[in-house]
Amino acid sequence: MTFDSLRSPAIYLRQMLGTVPHEETLQEYETWWEKAGQAISHSIDRAGTPWLRMFDPLGKRVDEILYPPEYWQMLKRGYQAGVIWRAFEERSLLPSYLLGYVTSFYDPGLYCPYTVSLSTAAPLDKYGSENLKARFLPQMLRKDEAAWQGATWMTEIKGGSDLGAAVETVAKPAGDKWLLNGEKYFSSNVGAELAVVAARPEGAPENVRGLALFLLPKYREDGHLNYFIRRIKDKIGTRSVPTGEVELKNSEAYLLGKPEWGIYLILEVLNLSRVANSIASVALAQRAMSDALNYAEGRTAFGKPVIEHPLLRKQFEDRFAALQAAFALGWESVQLLNEVWRETPPYSDRYHLFRLVAHFAKYWTAEFAAQTSKWAMEVYGGIGTLAEYHVERWLREAMILQIWEGTPHRQILDGLEVMQRKAAHRLLFQHLAPMADSQRLQEMTRQVEKHLVLSAEAKEAQAEKLFQDLAQFTASALLRKMQK
What we know:
Layout: H1 9-17, H2 23-47, E1 51-55, E2 61-66, H3 69-81, H4 85-89, H5 94-106, H6 111-127, H7 130-140, E3 152-153, H8 163-166, E4 170-174, E5 177-188, E6 194-201, E7 212-217, E8 228-232, E9 243-256, H9 262-298, E10 300-301, E11 304-305, H10 310-340, H11 349-380, H12 391-403, H13 408-422, H14 424-432, H15 438-452, H16 456-461, H17 463-483
Parallel strand pairs: 3-6, 4-6
Antiparallel strand pairs: 1-2, 4-5, 5-9, 6-7, 7-9, 8-9, 10-11
Helix pairs in contact: 2-3, 2-5, 5-9, 6-7, 6-9, 9-10, 9-11, 9-12, 10-11, 10-17, 11-12, 11-13, 11-14, 11-17, 15-17
């Protein structure tokens, strides 16, 4: 078995997919990363948390994120390549997620600004008024360095899992606008020109049904700042995306869609990001394996390269196979999303199938990335713990990917909910029937049906093992289809 494809995300994508849309663009993008981008990325990671300049010399509030100029060059490269505009010009998400895969091989954190920008543009395009779209969407779909960025701000100090109880930001109508007051505690890509924000209209129910989704520009109509950055978070990784605390003070915003659809729109935004998280996790795992391979081929112990020792060789083989399964699962979530991302409530059965697969993919790939990054450090031995050799970075990045857009617990509980309420497991088994082992399919069917009749407490308490089995079964079946 040869592991050479591990060294190139573009080559690995071709190996797994056969035909790759915009392959020449991906190769050019990868070449830029090899020649210039990854050196910038490592420099940004070493520099740590970016600075926040809150005021200009005359005391005017500016809330400017201070990165070196090379950072902005690196960031704008993906926007120019089409990580956002291609999705709308071609009416397909595939180019965006493919570019995200290449990005994440070199810098998973940088994929976050692209992801939340896509997750801002999509609801604006689907649910914004014609006036809103004409005013803001062209700015996000520019093909040059002036492209606007987006952000998705849901989480407040109480956390993100129980949005119904945690979101305290209030929206008050003011003519054709709304005024938002509140605080967002984990605001990724802070400084963006636009954000989609969860808030509760005055008088709305104190639960998830009372939430709505709003479009929030960086600047008010009078030109003044429309939101304020309290501070930048000091994170263990993903330093190429600024994450901050945002204060909303009579901030001007615009309602997206129907107020009663708010929670559905919020979940649409999260699902776009969850799929991206899966793609980033697989690409990160590939990068960790690539670095481990380069080291194992170069280091000699007991008279031969360590890659030739049977135990380590077997570990590479097992992880290479697991990487393929993780990719198959992550890519299926991309393909299903690409079928349903234009749907609006009420959703089709195909959408509910996508939801379940997306939960599996986010859960499984993030765990695989964390374990693979840890293993890559072990291949290096003691120097794997040293920042100067970069391999420890992948574990820091992977630990954040496990938590972003919903912890493993959240994926399990949301997956259980879509099986219970929408019978998504039956849709899944129908989907997998042509490619899955029939006996194993019957066993999994019985296992799920038996689990769903348990008491509510037992159903939740025992859900993790079921979810693990289902995710692994799904990944194996999808890999079999991909290899035919």
